[in-house]
Q: What sequence folds into this?
């Protein structure tokens, strides 16, 4: 009986060690995709033609991330500037030299639930992973 218990515990630990890397890579890839999207939106929004990150840009971003497996309703976008003016209004572009900041958040959900099986604490499912960036606006009014 003792040998059966040792076998079951060893097999469980072995399975966890084999598959833990795969689901942790899901978190790494999700964060990398969020950071890539932040960088892309900042590059587009802060260039000389725009000077803002509008709701249409956010919707296009959500659809791109949805193609990669994200749930668009769970994505949260926060647009801010270093001067305090709104950075999402196309009627009031952010002037050159002002920082345009973007943060995208996405919940971890139950991604780390398997860690609880071996006694490791998992993050709270209500916590979010976040990617953030800042870029100086290049918009010059005509």
A:
């Amino acid at each position: 009986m003792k040998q059966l218990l040792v076998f079951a515990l060893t097999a469980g630990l072995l399975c966890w060690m084999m598959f833990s890397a795969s689901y942790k890579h899901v978190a790494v890839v999700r964060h990398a995709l969020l950071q890539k999207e932040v960088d892309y939106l900042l590059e587009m929004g802060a260039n000389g033609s725009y000077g803002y990150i509008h709701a249409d840009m956010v919707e296009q971003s959500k659809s791109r991330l949805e193609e990669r497996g994200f749930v668009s309703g769970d994505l949260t976008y926060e647009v801010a500037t270093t001067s305090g003016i709104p950075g999402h209004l196309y009627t009031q572009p952010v002037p050159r030299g002002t920082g345009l900041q973007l943060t995208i958040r996405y919940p971890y959900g139950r991604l780390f639930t398997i860690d609880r099986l071996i006694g490791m604490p998992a993050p709270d499912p209500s916590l979010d992973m976040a990617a953030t960036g800042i870029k100086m606006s290049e918009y010059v009014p005509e």
